[in-house]
Amino acid sequence: MPQPPGLNAAEQRLWAAFPTGATVVLGDDRPAGPLPERMVRAEIITRLLLGAGDTRPGAVAAVRLRGAYILGRLDVSGGSVEHELLLDACRFVEEPDFSNAETRQLRFNDCRIPGFDGGGLRADGFLSMSGSEIDGEIRLFRAQLSGGLRLNGTTITAPGPERRALSSGGLVVDVGTFIRNATITGGVRFVGARMNGGLFMEGTTLVNPGRLALDAQNMVVEDTAEFSNGFSALGTVRLRSARFNGILSFSRGRLDSGDPARMALHASHMQADELLLWTDGQIKGRVSLSYSRIALIMDHPSVWPDELYLNGMTYETLRGGEFKDRLSWVSRDREFHLQPYEQLASWYHGIGHDDLARKVQLAKLRARRRHLNPVGKAWNHLLDWTVGYGYRPWLAFAWFAALLATGTTVFSIEEPRPVKPANELPAFHALIYTLDLLIPLDTFGQQLSYDAVSWSRWVAYALVTTGWVLATALIAGATRVLRPASNPN
What we know:
alpha/beta; 2 domains; 19-stranded parallel β-sheet; 14-stranded parallel β-sheet; 9 helices; 25% helix; rod-shaped; disordered C terminus
């Protein structure tokens, strides 16, 4: 097909190069303004992509252009594009529209673009905007990219505080999503996305303080999700109900909600094989892992925020932090919940540390005590001091031994008087008499045979009362320990 009339010099070169896919270089850098020798109308590129140009046997036709100033709107919406588009260091005046189009590989590297509409795009190859400056919104709703998505080194600035920088819903990306060392101002939306080759955002900065920096609810990532090695989010990262069939890593990243009252990481109801939550410094803002299921958690006390929600979360393995740190870890929810303590105790029991599991149970009951009424608090204090809620029964024996020694000493000094004639009574023994007072039953017959006198009578009353309290506390504690434990899962 001959060249259409009215083409300028740059457009003539592009039309002539199309059949062989040769690159037309109009300049080595991105044009700052509408230089005549670099101007190419978007409609000419559109016509070539949609089949208006000739093809040559033995060559692959393609549009390859560098250093162009592209006028008008590149619009192939709803069309079928059989040729690759590779644009380097170009400047667009208007937003390209590839909505609902079927295309091959698309590359807009080191370009300046006022947004991109790829809603419903189906690309048999990758979509790349690496190194570009996007002064607007990238829209990829329902897009399917079989060759991957590349936004490495890209700068995206949302058109306004209420607008997103990158929007998608139902996005499907094969091979991998690479958004490394990018700077994105405005929200990123990956709700319902499926990243079949992993998600890699190392070194990327997301800026949307006080709002959602990344909204990835219900996202599914196969392989690895890297928010690590210099990744920084100023705003909330929401991964609620997301699933990571591999590693979810925040290693050496930064999380800052921009508002202490907001979530820095909202990852409730999430599933992951491995979570690396070892950020560069403390997480600023709240973190929720409630009702998530994670096989392995690797974290460190230095990164935990002041508010951490773990209720309902289950895990198989913990790495990082000592025992005392883990007690602090499960207590950072301002509302008391039994499940985080039960899960931690179950984990320690599962790895053979029954002593630590008992200490977690003690910590659970002491934490629960703070939320009881005064009577409940008093009774819980008593159970704690006397038998350690049944987890430290030796305390009861220690109290018993101390009281036994006290009573024996007192009644050796101030011997009780007999209540019957001497020939009808067993011989008095201070130790046995004290035992009879402490044990709620008259086991040895001394209590009913002798009556304390003078000031020692008050000691006897105290021993009887204390004996009943100890026995009650021991029974209550034993009942608590022997009661079948609820399943923390």
